[in-house]
Amino acid sequence: MVDPKILVSAIQDFERGGIQSDDFLKKAHLVYNACATFPPTCLVESEHPYLLGCVFAYFAKYYSNNIDYYTSIIENALFCFCRVMKENLSESESQCASIRMLLLIEDNEWVMKGIVHKFCEQRCQELYGQPLVFHRMLAQSMDAWAFEMDVLKLLAFYCIERSSSKAKHSFISSSDTSRYMKIVKSGKYGVEWPLVQVSMEQVYEMFSEFVRESVNTPFERRIAQLYRIL
User: Fold this and answer.
1) Is the pTM of this model over 0.90?
2) Coil, strand or helix: which one is 96?
3) Which of 56-60, 98-102, 132-136, 179-183 shows the lowest mean pLDDT across its residues?
4) What share of the chain has pLDDT > 70, as a percent?
């Protein structure tokens, strides 16, 4: 397990120096490598999934030039935030996890589309009521990423609904709160005519389960240790 003091310290290092902070990067690599095992005990059984999710969310773009590592880090962050939202042990933490997941979608759209693409293909029958072969044929006649963006909008709007509250989000900085409010007011993630045939809540639950299965699958990219080249 990762000492919660390291998680808190890593988050503070990021808030002071951003993604290029040497102190943050050292701790973020340490945290990631502790979870890059099979089974991923540290990730699945962590007593502080919200803090763990924040570290992964901050760390992800450091590996934006490597799709495998980038994807694995984003999956870790998604898993942590979904876990907090599902377990709902703290209302404030659950709301903050919803906000963090929305910002994660907003800040990492292109890798999120790749993750959602796999989700759509794996759960095609449940989502669209048709076999994958027909789904692929239909996708070719539509705008690129139409189905993926549709699901992302549903996930993002679900996060907005879960995070809506008059309570102060004590774990969210003023700058992130401002970004969150700007996204909400923009209406960017509104969905009038979704392409899926199930509810927004069902899409989220299915996606959460898909992420859980992903982090529990020993892909080579998921169990690889990461070492920063100075």
Assistant:
1) yes
2) helix
3) 132-136
4) 96
Question: What number of other Cβ atoms are within 10 A of residue 118's Cβ?
Answer: 13
Q: What is the DSSP string of 139-182?
A: HHTS-TTHHHHHHHHHHHHHHHHHH--SS--TTS-HHHHHHHHH
Is the sign of the CA dihedral 89, 90, 94, 100 positive or negative? negative
- Rounded to 5 degrees, φ, ψ at 31 are -65, -45
- DSSP structure string for 23-57: HHHHHHHHHHHHH-SSS-HHHHH-S-HHHHHHHHH
Half-sphere exposure of 142 (CA within 13 A, CB side): 13
pLDDT per position as a tens digit, 58-68: 999 999 999 99
Task: List the one residue out of 145, 132, 118, 94 whose CA is nearest residue 211.
Answer: 118
Say if residues 132 and 177 touch (Cβ distance below 8 Å): no
